[in-house]
Predict the structure.
Amino acid sequence: MKTLLAQALVLLVWGTVGTASAQTVHLQFDASQPQVSHAAARLRATLREKGLRIGAKPTKDDFVVALSVNARDLEPEAFRTTGGERSLAVEGGDGRGVIYGALSIAEQLRNGTAIGQVRPESAKPALAFRAIKFNLPWDSYRSSSALDLHYDTVRDLKYWEAFLDMMADNRFNALTLWNLHPFPYMIKSKNFPEASRFTDAEMAEWRNLYRGIFSMAKERGIETYVVNWNVVVSPEFAKAHQLKGANFYPNYKGEADTSEVVKRYTRESVTQMLNEYPDLTGFGFSFGEQMGGMTPRERQEWVDDTLIAGVRAANRPSKMIFRAPFSADLGQGGSTDLATEQLTRNAIDRLDGADDSVWMEIKFNWSHGHSTPELVKVHGGEMKDTYFNPVPRNYKVAWMVRNEDFYTLRWGVADFVREHLRQNAHQAYVGGYFVGSENYIPAKDYFTATSAAVNWRYAFERQWLFYKLWGRLLYDPATPDRVFEDEFVRRYGESAKPLLKAYGLASATQLKFATATDFSWDFTIYGEGMMVLGRGGMQPMSLDRLILQKPLLKTWLSVQDFVGKRLSGEAVLPGTMTPLALADDLEADNLRALRLLEGIDTSGNASLMYEVADVKAWASLGLYYADKLRAAVALQTYRMKGGENHKQAAIAHAERSLAHWDELIAITRPIYKDMPLTHYNPPNNGRTEDNLFHWALLRPAIARDVEVAKAAAAPK
């Protein structure tokens, strides 16, 4: 029988252990436990990174690191590390906890701590479900070259090894893979082989990819889920069965064919997928997608007869992600619907399982979760309390915090994440979060223009701070800023320590823009471009639009309402955010961020140069937005009251705003390519020529603000 000491991994450490001389480190762990073995492997890799090497057999003088599961004293995913003069113990409530404990030690070692001086630590998860939303580039929900270009990268298991390591490092414990119709890429249907477009050899490659992803994820303590869009089938299946409905790409909007052959194919596909992929944790679906023409009850019956029936027919149990439906109609502007919510609640209440086997996914503030931490709306509008009251017994809500606002610039506002969790994670019905995008895939780096060596290969590695903030704070909201500052120091040296505060100040520009700009679905705003959806598509917000634009929060005033109140003498209530107060906040925060950069020397370090440049870019956007708000207030005042001084103020602020945009161009033009942007593509309307995004390409629209101010006429 294998015991805890069944395997010893011997490493010779060239360095000091406390006050001792060079020592040998002996790792003790149970090799029969895959996650514990992975924890040992990750720790070994870190020791090698520090210049250490494998040594001889252990002796009585060895420094011992013991890794073990202690489910009696620790809850799942919790860990504690304790140490003596010549030993460290890593205990986890389960294998996942052991991984986190080992990674905690590895983090200290990477930050320069000697093995004998590692600080004892303990932690436990605040939330049970900490997921990444990852849209796959094949049969993706949106149509864009910005998604297609990731195809080869995402089919490479080396990419997934790096991505899953990042997830484990940051304590994410669930990977959710989304595309329209996953089954033909995962199985050759036994009874409907005509649904597949692939040869047996091609199918073998797809199976190897998915099995590799699921296996590596399981080894790292990461659950995996496949999420589909319900009534979609492959074009091959639709053609073979002469379907008349909108069931296949790219014609998957509207009324779908829900005939018996489609039901049987869908039900059997779910079952076969779960049976063929034993490492796949679960399956996701909803009542709200690709169900045009179906009543709420018909949707429920479809899900019961196909998806849920398929899950129950599998030869093993699996978890489920239940996407909350939004309304009785499928229009992008459709409002939430109480009857549909109640029907859904009744359907989920019938499902068997504990409260960690069904996750109810709800979009927090629709497609733009990076706005305010206050829950204002979900997909379709304001949500009732149907899913919470009474508190569910067999499911937990997992908030979906979407990012459709920044893909190029690095983002990192630790206080926003902490406040989000403070307001929204403590309720008895909340079990976790999803973080991710619909229109961006963090795989291929299609941004970087410089040929200088940088310390990343993949897009997600550029955005390490985003993932580290969300993941570590979801696991433990009390994680101090020191953890993130230490990572900047490890990567770039002591002078880079202020970058965390600088990012917190400068990239909060995006949060303020989103809160000041009411939105709904994906393409209604794009924060890092200061863009909104208008009659001509996505475009920079004009002065005229800014004057009329309603904010997301009721306690924030639009320019039009603010000027109207001021001119009428109506008092502004305490706690109200006015456009001029917002402008002052933006200016103060971004100037402070720029001051924090003054001691950072980026010469000879291209990666650090990009980090600093992104802070400067956010600051330029913030200063641009501040002066644009002031220009809008002055312009609206002139239009309502007259006064040449107001017109001249509008012109001056518009010109300063343009100057800040030119600073933004000067920063980003040398280091960022012109980039495809999904927001430019007509949604779900087939393949079109992609327009490219870069701040330099938007300058003509920005410059028009000056002309608008100059051409303004006073009231008659």
User: Anything to note?
Assistant: The longest strand covers residues 7-13. The two ends are 94 Å apart (CA to CA). Residues 606-641 form the longest helix (36 residues).
